[in-house]
Amino acid sequence: MNPTRACVTIVACALLATGPGPCTRVHAASEVLESEKVAPGLLYGRYRKAGIIVHAMKMDLRQKDLHIRSIKAIGKETVRQMVDRLNGETRVAAAINGDFFRFESAAGLPYGVQVSDGRLIFAPLRRSMIGFGPNNEPYIGVVSLKGKVSFVAKEKRGPVAKWGEIDGVNVLDEENTRLAGTYLYTPAFVQLKTTTARTVIVILESIEPALQVGDVCEGTVSAVKTGEGDLKIPDGGCLLHFFGDRAQKQVAALRPGHPVAIKLDLPPIAGGVSQAIGGGPRVVRDGKVSVELTKEDFAPDMLAHLPMRHPRSAIGYDRKKESLYLVMVEGRHAESNGMTFGELGQFLIEIGCHQAMAFDGGGSSSLYAAGKGIVSYSDGPFVNFEEREIANGLLITTDEGSNAEKGSRKK
Q1: Coarse DSSP helix, strand, coil percentages of the chain, rounded to the nearest 5 percent
Q2: What mean pLDDT is predicted for residues 322-338?
Q3: In the chain, where are the structural domains located?
């Protein structure tokens, strides 16, 4: 075997091996088309299995020079656009599309949770998400929002200080369906349109630390508004939208300059969350295929997709929580017709995942590898691949030199 071929085989075995056994077990079931080391601790592989083309990346979570970042698009962007934008300020080694999102919203609103650099951007839905705790430990599961707000000055605040509950974050429901409650809107929501005079809007500026999960975030009231109109959400701040007589009485005496404190948590994750992004459904639980579509908050028509093959994106990690896997399955073209959720789960187990979940799939599926650009597309004729604008993505950045390039080549 020549040195080049030997190097490729070693990298492919490291990425695709299912356990301590020889790598020939993998090669017996798959054809390695391409593989390489993208950065220290990060491997990329592309191969064909049963007529399906799959791209996979394996990240060593112990590698100090690699960092996971959950990135919100500016409105909606393609993975390529997010990578190109961020490569100006950091070095992107890998990227994959993220959560399902609302097509009708120009703001690019995902359905599930998102935490970026510790800051809560969107609240969780009862769907699987992946989050990373304070020690970069991955967690896949369904989390909830525990939010509260206090208008008591810091020096007067103590264990018995009164806190009011926050009932939702960036909620889209029509105002006339809400009878009571307190709702928080982050800058990612861009602008809130109020359509009734029966509410009070409290505008908060200079929140520090800026809506960090797990911390007490403090700021001041900038303005108090009532009535109909459009309100821009200030960068570095937020809006609190109060419904119902009781909620409005709580803020009746507020004036500009009044102190405010907000506390946000995502149980069962404790101790803060550095990065998080939604998706679903879970497809692997404790090393076994477990497609949990019916256990999560998906519309009934999603059940029709269970036996169907589509392009898929997914993420998972091993039993020891030392390796993270990003996977994209090509589909809807002559060389690859995609996978079902069950097939996706089985594949993720084969490459080493103990827990895993899907991201948005179909035309949204896209994977980037440094030095190679966008390595996969989906949805459309084989010669006319689509890069769909999406709401968010998960990136791996590196401090060390890699093959990263600004811009990305077309297939």
Answers
A1: 15, 40, 45
A2: 91
A3: 34-142+272-398, 146-265
- Residue in this structure with the two tokens 């929580």, named with its chain if needed: 321
Give the pLDDT of residue 156: 64
Two tokens at 141?
């599961």
| Distance in angstroms between the alpha carbons of the first and the last residue of the chain | 29
Is 188 strand, coil or helix?
helix
**Nearest-angstrom CA–CA distance, 246 and 180:** 8
What is the per-residue DSSP string for 66-123? EEEEEEEEEEEE-HHHHHHHHTTTS-EEEEEE---B-TT-TT--BSS-EEETTEEEE-
CA distances from 321 to 21, 72, 152, 317 (A): 20, 25, 41, 6
- Closest by alpha carbon to 72, among 276, 327, 212? 276
Provide the β-strand partners of residue 53: 48
Positive or negative torsion for Cα 117, 313, 335, 77: negative
Question: Residues 377, 366: contact at Cβ < 8 Å?
Answer: yes
The residues, any chain, with a CB within 8 Å of residue 264's CB and separated by 6 or more, are 120, 145, 146, 147, 166, 211, 212, 213, 214, 217
Give tens-digit pLDDT for 288-312.
999 999 999 998 887 777 788 999 9
CB 166 within 8 A of CB 184: yes
Q: How far is CA 112 from CA 169, 204, 221, 405, in A?
A: 11, 24, 28, 31
Asked if residues 130 and 138 have their Cβ atoms less than 8 Å apart, the reply is yes
Measured CA distances, 144 to 7, 168, 187, 263 (Å): 45, 10, 21, 14
pTM of the model: 0.86
Residues 163, 144: Cα–Cα separation, whole Å: 18
Q: Strand locations in 233-381, DSSP E?
A: 238-243, 259-265, 275-278, 282-285, 288-289, 312-317, 323-329, 355-358, 367-369, 373-376
